[in-house]
TrEMBL record:
Source organism (scientific name): Mesobacillus campisalis
UniProt cross-references to InterPro entries, sorted A to Z: Peptide_deformylase (IPR023635), Peptide_deformylase_sf (IPR036821)
UniProt-recorded name of the protein: Peptide deformylase
Gene field: def
EC number: 3.5.1.88
Top-level taxonomic group: Bacteria
Length: 160
């Protein structure tokens, strides 16, 4: 396993729609393991493949160091409610802003073996997943920021 280099804005790969993953092999497993190492190294709560220069629909989320969700070809099926809170991104070092998103989501995705599963998430986990799914469609959180936050407002904010 190894830590990959983070692609920071501006970069074309961060603003394009990623390709569907068709092959679920050992190489994909290695990539997911590297994404995990990279997310931990940079102290993030999520990471999308384009953030390490790979234009494929692969994202991982781990908001509390207990459960790592691996989402391949994820689709958000349902959303409800709203939440507004601070967001950051490993591709925008030092930049934080308030983003409003649905509070609760239902997602389907494939795991590293290609098996489809569904999961529900709410609150911060739902926020992190939506941030990563946006990455896979070339959508950056800066397009959704209602207000940028100053450093003193940032206590405890997470990077995705
Ligand atoms: Zn991000």
């Amino acid at each position: 396993m190894s830590v990959r280099k983070i692609v920071t804005y501006p970069a074309d790969i961060l603003e394009q729609v990623c390709k569907t993953v068709m092959v679920f092999d050992k190489k994909l497993g290695k990539l997911l393991d590297d994404m995990y190492d990279t997310m931990i190294e940079y102290d993030g709560v999520g990471l999308a493949a384009p953030q390490i220069g790979i234009d494929k629909q692969i994202a991982i989320v781990d908001i509390d160091d207990s459960t790592t969700y691996e989402l391949i070809n994820p689709v958000i099926l349902e959303t409800s409610g709203t939440q507004t809170g601070p967001e950051g991104c490993l591709s925008f070092p030092g930049l934080f802003g308030e983003v409003t998103r649905p509070y609760k989501i239902k997602v389907k995705a494939q795991n590293r073996k290609g098996k489809w599963f569904e999961m529900e998430a709410e609150d911060f986990l739902a926020r992190a997943i939506q941030h990563e799914v946006d990455h896979l469609h070339g959508v950056l959180f800066t397009t959704k920021v209602s207000r940028y936050l100053e450093e003193e407002e940032l206590e405890g904010s997470s990077k995705e």
